[in-house]
C-alpha cells in the first residue's frame, strides 16, 4: 500500500487579519533567555532583534502586545503536575514569583509602564488566564506567536488559540527551542525539534511564516 502524506493547508486558505491581530511574546524572560539561566534556550537571544522589530510594528499600528511569564508561587502550591515534569521548577530554582528570573529579559523592548505582562501557571497563555476575554474585548481575532519554546509554551498557546477560533500566525524565525534528550526514541537537536514543530504547526494549527513576511502583512494591512 502506498504511503500517504498529509499536506499542509495553503496559507491562502488560512484567515489572518493583520488589522485585528495581537502580538504574543511568549516567555522571553530571564529564566529562559539569560546566559546560564536554569532553562536557558541559547537560541532565544538571537530572536530579540526580530521580536523587537515586530513589537515596534505592532505598536505603530495600535495592535495589542502581550508578554507572558510563567510564574509559580514560592511555596509550590500551584505546581500541580509541573512538580513531576520539571524538577528544576519544583525545587524553587526557576520560575519563582518575585524573582528576577521571571522578569522580561532586559534586551526585549518591554516597557513596564505601558505594556501588559500576563502571568501564566502552565505552558499555554490561555490556560487559567483572562487572555481570551481581553483579546475579544479589543476586537482581536488573530494572534501572532513569538518567543520560547517553540514546541512547548509557544505551541501550546497557538493550539489553544486555534481551539478558541483565533487565527494563528506562528513566526518561524522569531521562535526558538532546545534539544531533547533521549527518552527512548532517540535524541533530538534544537534544529530538529524546531523543524518538526514548525511543520506540525503548519499542518494542524495555523500559518507559519518568517518575520519579513509578517512585517509586510502588518505594513500593508492586507
From TrEMBL:
<dbReference type="InterPro" id="IPR036380">
    <property type="entry name" value="Isochorismatase-like_sf"/>
</dbReference>
<feature type="domain" description="Isochorismatase-like">
    <location>
        <begin position="21"/>
        <end position="212"/>
    </location>
</feature>
<protein>
    <submittedName>
        <fullName>Cysteine hydrolase</fullName>
    </submittedName>
</protein>
<keyword id="KW-0378">Hydrolase</keyword>
<dbReference type="GO" id="GO:0016787">
    <property type="term" value="F:hydrolase activity"/>
</dbReference>
<dbReference type="InterPro" id="IPR050272">
    <property type="entry name" value="Isochorismatase-like_hydrls"/>
</dbReference>
<dbReference type="Pfam" id="PF00857">
    <property type="entry name" value="Isochorismatase"/>
</dbReference>
<dbReference type="InterPro" id="IPR000868">
    <property type="entry name" value="Isochorismatase-like_dom"/>
</dbReference>
Amino acid at each position: 500500500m502506498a504511503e500517504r502524506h498529509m499536506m499542509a493547508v495553503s496559507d491562502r486558505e488560512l484567515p489572518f487579519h493583520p488589522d485585528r491581530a495581537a502580538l504574543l511574546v511568549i516567555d522571553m524572560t530571564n529564566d529562559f533567555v539569560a546566559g546560564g539561566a536554569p532553562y536557558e534556550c541559547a537560541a532565544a537571544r538571537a530572536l530579540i532583534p526580530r521580536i523587537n522589530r515586530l513589537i515596534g510594528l505592532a505598536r505603530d499600528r495600535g495592535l495589542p502586545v502581550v508578554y507572558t511569564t510563567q510564574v509559580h508561587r514560592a511555596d509550590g502550591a500551584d505546581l500541580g503536575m509541573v512538580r513531576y515534569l520539571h524538577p528544576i521548577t519544583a525545587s524553587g530554582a526557576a520560575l519563582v514569583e518575585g524573582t528576577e528570573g521571571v522578569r522580561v529579559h532586559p534586551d526585549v523592548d518591554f516597557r513596564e509602564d505601558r505594556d501588559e505582562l500576563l502571568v501564566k501557571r502552565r505552558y499555554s497563555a490561555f490556560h487559567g488566564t483572562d487572555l481570551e476575554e481581553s483579546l475579544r474585548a479589543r476586537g482581536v481575532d488573530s494572534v501572532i506567536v513569538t518567543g520560547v519554546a517553540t514546541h512547548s509554551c509557544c505551541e501550546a498557546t497557538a493550539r489553544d488559540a486555534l481551539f478558541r477560533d483565533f487565527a494563528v500566525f506562528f513566526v518561524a524565525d522569531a521562535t526558538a527551542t532546545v534539544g531533547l534528550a533521549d527518552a527512548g526514541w532517540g535524541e533530538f537537536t534544537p534544529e530538529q525539534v524546531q523543524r518538526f514543530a514548525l511543520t506540525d504547526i503548519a499542518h494542524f494549527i495555523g500559518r507559519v511564516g518568517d518575520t519579513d513576511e509578517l512585517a509586510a502583512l502588518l505594513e500593508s494591512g492586507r
